[in-house]
Amino acid sequence: MTHPAGPGDDDSGPCDDPEAVAREIADAIESLTNLWSLAAQGATVRLSLHQLRALRVLQTAPDVNLTALAERLDIGLPTASRLCDRLEAAGLLERTPHPHNRREVRLALTAQGRRVLADVAARRSQALAAALAAMEPEDRMLLRRGMRSFLAGYDLAQRNGSGPEPPPA
Questions:
Q1: Is the pLDDT score of 169 beyond 90?
Q2: Cα(140)–Cα(85) distance, rounded to whole angstroms?
Q3: In this structure, are residues 93 and 104 in contact, taking their beta carbons and an 8 Å threshold?
Q4: Mean pLDDT of the region 95-112
Q5: Which of 113-150 are b and which e, b meaning 16 or more Cβ less than 10 Å from the residue's Cβ?
Q6: Taking each helix axis from N to C terminus, what angle separates 77-89 and 49-60, rounded to the nearest 10 degrees?
Q7: pLDDT averaged over the chain?
Q8: Under 8 Å CB-to-CB from 143, ≥6 apart: which residues?
Q9: Is the Cβ–Cβ distance between 128 and 116 less than 8 Å?
Q10: Which of 158, 120, 93, 18 has the alpha carbon at shortest distance from 167?
Q11: What pLDDT does 165 receive?
Q12: How do the domains of the chain map onto residue ranges?
């Protein structure tokens, strides 16, 4: 793995080649993904990435049904059903009948599911804050500014139709 501007490196050369920058950012994202995953594993309830994604979907789109959850996670209905079975058995998800359609079941987080998501978010924030604290203040400021610029560029590319489709929530 390469590290952008690691020890002995400087930013004086031409570093604006999008492909070269993309490779460096990909390496940084890999490190961030590892940090993210390890922080989540320290939570009070250990969840797979699929389970965690399902809980996040339910947090952002309460009362979705199984079909909508499967679509958002880009998985098949049987897989989504088994995933919900496990989450329900762990007390993180509840299924309730739709008030106007007896054939439809709504999915919602339980209070325990919300607590687990809050715990994971707090652990991830702490791990990220520890990494940021090890940086020089000026570098943190530059990273923040760069991330804002990246997000603005990403949004513009999406509006212009030149970027990839965003993944499901």
A1: no
A2: 42
A3: no
A4: 88
A5: beebbeebeebbeebeeeeeeeeeeeeeeeeeeeeeee
A6: 90
A7: 85
A8: 132, 135
A9: no
A10: 158
A11: 61
A12: 46-135
Q: How far is the first Cα of the chain from the last one, in angstroms, to the nearest whole number?
A: 29
Q: 131: which 2 tokens?
A: 């990494």
pLDDT at residue 12, as a whole number = 46
What's the rounded Cα separation, in Å, for the pair 36 and 120?
Answer: 9
The pLDDT of 87-105, averaged and rounded, is 89
User: Crossing angle, helix 66-73 and helix 49-60, to 10 degrees?
Assistant: 120
According to the CATH classification, is domain 46-135 in 3.40.50.300?
Answer: no
Residue positions counted in the chain: 169
* CB-based contacts of 91, cutoff 8 Å, min separation 6: 110, 112, 113
The dihedrals phi and psi of 8, each to the nearest 5 degrees, come to 85, -10
Q: Which two tokens stand for residue 114?
A: 């919300």
Question: Which one of 13-22, 36-45, 66-75 scores highest in mean pLDDT?
Answer: 66-75
Q: What does the block give as tokens for 84?
A: 């919900």
Q: Which residue type sits at 150?
A: F
Instruction: Show the tokens assigned to 77.
Output: 């209905």
Q: Enter the pTM of the model.
A: 0.73
pLDDT band at 121 (very low <50, low <70, confident <90, very high): very high
